[in-house]
Each structure stands twice: as structure tokens, then as C-alpha cells.
Amino acid sequence: MTKAQSEAQWELDKLVRDLDMQSNARMREWVAGLGLTVAQASALREMAGPMTMRELAERMSCEPSNATFVIDKLEALQLIERRPNPADRRVRRLVLTPAGAELRKRLMKVLSEEPLFAGLTQDEQGALQGLLKRALFRAEVLPP
Predict the structure, then answer these.
(1) Which of 81, 114, 118, 140 is surrounded by the most beta carbons within 10 Å?
(2) HEC states along 24-86?
(3) 85-121 tens-digit pLDDT
(4) Rounded to whole angstroms, how far apart are CA atoms 125 and 139?
(5) How far apart are the first and last CA of the chain?
(6) Does the predicted TM-score (pTM) go above 0.85?
(7) Residues near 54 by Cβ (< 8 Å), separated by ≥ 6?
(8) What is the dihedral of CA 46, 78, 111, 69, to 10 degrees?
(9) C-alpha distances out from residue 142 to 3, 135, 139, Å
């Protein structure tokens, strides 16, 4: 790798980190107004319907044990219930309570009001999404 390529890679890495930090800061600010943490908001956002803990963890891109911790908190707030799964009695399904469904609705409204990428056209957003997915896929398949 040439020096110019190395510097370009460093700059790209820095931009991605800065974007991540800005995104996280904005998300913390938005969800704090709803009395949630970012992890709790992530779980509620992904709860479009009943699902298992494993499904939720996959959608949240985290380990099931981390999702369990978040769900325990949401259950204590009476926003989510664990119910028997009719398809498999050994597995519990997560279901939003009426209060959880209402809070999820408010969360989705907050998240849609001020999108992070509002300054980009839909075509630009699509291109960026495709590039980020490619970069993430390559990072997963390449050895460390």
C-alpha cells in the first residue's frame, strides 16, 4: 500500500468513526427524551411484531445475553412481555404491551423526524448503504 493509499484509508476510517460517534450522540439525545437508553430504543425499534429473544438479538446485532439484559429492563418497565411460543413451548416470544406499542410508535416518529442522512438524496443514501454493506461483508470474510 502506498503512502497516499494509507493516508486515504486512515481518513476514511476516521470519517466512519466520526459518523458513528455523531450518530450515537444524536440517538442518545433523541431517546433520552422518551426515557430510554439507546439499547432499549434499538430493541423497541426492532419489535415490529412478536419474536424470540434470538431473533431480536440478531436484529439488534448483539449477543442473546445482551438482548436479555435489555429485555429484562423493558419488561420491568412493562413495555414488553415474555409469552409462551405456540410453535415451540420451550421458547418464549417477546410481545409489546399496549404501553410498549405506544412508546414504539412515539420512538419511530422521533427517529423519522430528523434522519441522520437527511442531507443526502435518496440515490446517495442508497449508494452509501450499498458501499457500507460491501465494506462490512468484506470485513467479515477477510481474516484479521
Answers:
(1) 81
(2) HHHHHHHHHCCCCCHHHHHHHHHCCCCEEHHHHHHHHCCCHHHHHHHHHHHHHCCCEEEEEEC
(3) 888 888 889 999 999 999 999 999 988 887 778 888 9
(4) 21
(5) 17
(6) no
(7) 64
(8) -60
(9) 22, 11, 5
Q: For residue 102, give the C-alpha cell.
A: 405506544
Q: How far apart (Å, rounded) are the C-alpha atoms in residues 55 and 71?
A: 13
Answer for the pair 24, 38: CB distance below 8 angstroms, yes or no: yes
Task: Please report where in the chains the cell 412493562 appears, as a residue.
Answer: 78
Q: How many CB atoms lie within 10 A of CB 41?
A: 22
Q: What is the dihedral of CA 67, 70, 73, 76, to 10 degrees?
A: -40
Give dist(CA 107, CA 6) in Å, integer.
40
